[in-house]
Every structure is written in structure tokens, then in C-alpha cells.
Write a structure and sequence with these properties.
- The protein is α+β, with helices and mostly antiparallel strands.
- It is 26% helix and 23% strand.
- Helix 3 crosses helix 8 and helix 6 runs antiparallel to helix 8.
Length: 360
């Protein structure tokens, strides 16, 4: 029971390891007659692939996706969609000198204790390499949502905090997010972030990040009041991403510091048009979408593989130390932007289909 499947009606199962021959996913529950090309999926995969800047791992993967089933004459058939991405640039030898050691902050220790075996080559299933398959599934979900919801639907994500340095989200600019190596929405912070991350890398350390995902054009009524709340499923989706340690919906944790009148999103009606004066709820009330923009943010911890020596134990129960060499992101959170976008797309489509099934 390893639970490699996510979703209820729109479901995807990922498979493969970081240093295996390939990774991929099988998508079930996708509606038929959705126009899908490999280029549509590739466009999303290119956003997260490694080796695109000096601020990410230098592992070179083209992440070229191939559709094996479920699409005929450019349209989905309603049958399972199988996608495969072949691994190209594995350096398993980089991990041989630490194969018996548990990297602090990694899943090495818990995987070994649970299963009695672990793939030490890049972390196996616990590697962020697995997330490429999620992005592929998210690309399909996004195509369906675009058809069902029309031009009003729009989803975007960005890094809003890099380590200790935040940015001004009121300057959010979708047009620059994928044109800078930090996926930053605030153009004024690029040089500051560059200097900061270069110093982190030079020190042989790493830093965390906060990613914010926004979705517009979402209809009212998605989600259920109790055990399948829309925000609960979104939080589950984001927490399932490697290295994520916290999730906020709307004001999230900060709402504890607000008064009742500050936190309440006042509602008014003007010429039969509904208006919310604020959006502390992040577009979700009582587990159900309100029609407002859905806003979710999540925190990614610092990359655990660092050059600085740390104390640990090995699989024989002996004290030792470890310094991780090889190719690693100084901030793994940077490449989590398209992953968060993909996971939110999958949850929204899943709930859209469930809402249609119950309420038509």
C-alpha cells in the first residue's frame, strides 16, 4: 500500500525512480474529446525541467514526453492516458560513497525503516524527479479546465519568498514569472534574489521558498462541506509535493492574528453583481468555492543535500558524518512553481467533475 494514486474522479498514478530508465503516469477519468498534443504537455514540463539556469541542479534532462495511450487523432478518448518520460542524465556513481548513510532532512532514514530497503541513487521515489509526472498530469487537467470553464479560467504560480527575502505581491506580473530564473512575480527583486542565492550556493548551503498559486474563473460550488472540502484536498495535494512543510489557504496562518471584522470578507450586491470586499478566505468558504480567486501558498524547506558536513548515522547504527556532493538545487523551491500549478489544476478538475456528477 504505497499510495501512488491521487484524485477521486480525475485520478493519476505516477511511477518510476530518479535513476531508473524512465518515469511516467497513468491518468484515468479524463473526459473524452479534449484536444491534447504532446506539445501541450511539453510546454508545462519545460517550466520545471532541471539545468535551465545556474540556480538549479545541473542535471540535464530534456523531459521529452510521449503519449502511449488514451489520445486518438489529437483528442482524448475517455480511456486511460499513459505518459512516459525517459531519464537521460543519471550519475548514480555520485551516490555510492553515501549509500550506507542517511542524509539528514531526507527521507532516507524513514524509507529504510519502513521498507528495509531503499534506492540510494538520488532518493528513488522520494526524489523531486517524480514531480515531472505530476506536471504532465496537470497539463492534461489544465486543458480540460480551459475547455469546460472557458477564457475566464486562468491559473498562475510564482515564488513569493526566497529564504529570508520576500517580494511585493501587489506587483504580481504573470508576464515575467517564466522569464526569470526565480519564477518571481516582482521584477524589482530579481537582482537582490540573485545576489542572495549566489551567496547561499557559495557557502555550500541551501534555502527554502514560499510559492503562491492563484486560480481565477472558478465557479461557485466546488467542494463538499465536510470530508472532501476543496481546501482540504488542495492542502493534501500541496503537502504531497516533495519538501513541502506547510500550506496556507488565503490568509492561512496569518488569519489567527486578525480580528473578526478584519478577517470577514464582506459581501455586497451592486446592480445584481456580487462583490466581496476582500479575500482572506482564499476563495473557499466552508470547504466550497465562493467564485472568488482561489489563493494557496506553500512553504518548501531548504534542500537537504548540502556540501556542509552534518552529523548522521549509517544503516549499521553507527555515528558518522556526511557531506553531499553532486548536482543539487541551492533552492529546490524554485522548481516547485509549475508543480504547485499542476496539483491545483488536478484538484480543481477533480472537484469540477464531482460537482457536475452531484449537482449537474
Amino acid at each position: 500500500m504505497s499510495f501512488n494514486t491521487f484524485g477521486k474522479l480525475f485520478r493519476f498514478t505516477t511511477w518510476g525512480e530518479s535513476h531508473g530508465p524512465a518515469i511516467g503516469c497513468i491518468i484515468d477519468g479524463c473526459p473524452p474529446l479534449i484536444q491534447v498534443k504532446e506539445q501541450d504537455i511539453q510546454k508545462e514540463l519545460d517550466k520545471r525541467k532541471p539545468g535551465q539556469s545556474k540556480f538549479t541542479t545541473q542535471r540535464k534532462e530534456s523531459d521529452k514526453v510521449q503519449i502511449l495511450s488514451g489520445v486518438f487523432e489529437g483528442k482524448t478518448t475517455g480511456t486511460p492516458i499513459s505518459l512516459i518520460i525517459y531519464n537521460e542524465d543519471m550519475r548514480s556513481k555520485d551516490y555510492k560513497n553515501i549509500k550506507d548513510k542517511f542524509r539528514p532532512g531526507h527521507a532516507d532514514f524513514t524509507y529504510f525503516k519502513k521498507y528495509g530497503i531503499r534506492d540510494y541513487r538520488g532518493g528513488g521515489r522520494s526524489s523531486a524527479r517524480e514531480t515531472a509526472a505530476r506536471v504532465a498530469a496537470g497539463a492534461i487537467a489544465k486543458k480540460v479546465l480551459q475547455k469546460k470553464l472557458g477564457k475566464k479560467f486562468r491559473i498562475s504560480a510564482a515564488v513569493t519568498q526566497l529564504g529570508i527575502l520576500g517580494c511585493d505581491t501587489t506587483k504580481w506580473n504573470d508576464k515575467i514569472i517564466y522569464k526569470n530564473p526565480f519564477f518571481c512575480p516582482d521584477n524589482s527583486m530579481l537582482k537582490t534574489w540573485e545576489k542572495y542565492l549566489l551567496s547561499i550556493r557559495k557557502a555550500g548551503s541551501s534555502c527554502g521558498a514560499i510559492i503562491e498559486v492563484r486560480a481565477k474563473g472558478i465557479p461557485t460550488g466546488l467542494g463538499a462541506p465536510i470530508y472532501s472540502k476543496l481546501d482540504a484536498d488542495i492542502a493534501s495535494a500541496m503537502m504531497s509535493i516533495n519538501a513541502v512543510k506547510g500550506v496556507n489557504i488565503g490568509s492561512g496562518m496569518n488569519s489567527a492574528q486578525l480580528s473578526g471584522e478584519e478577517n470577514s470578507d464582506e459581501i455586497s450586491l451592486n446592480k445584481k453583481k456580487l462583490k466581496f470586499n476582500s479575500n482572506n478566505a482564499g476563495g473557499i468558504l466552508g470547504g466550497i468555492s465562493s467564485g472568488q480567486e482561489i489563493i494557496v501558498s506553500f512553504a518548501v524547506k531548504p534542500t537537504s543535500s548540502i556540501l556542509k558536513s552534518r552529523k548522521t548515522i549509517n544503516k549499521f547504527g553507527k555515528n558518522t558524518s556526511i557531506s553531499v556532493r553532486g548536482r543539487h538545487d541551492p533552492c529546490v523551491g524554485i522548481r516547485a512553481v509549475p508543480i504547485g500549478e499542476a496539483m491545483l489544476s488536478c484538484v480543481l478538475l477533480d472537484h469540477y467533475l464531482m460537482n457536475k456528477a452531484q449537482c449537474n
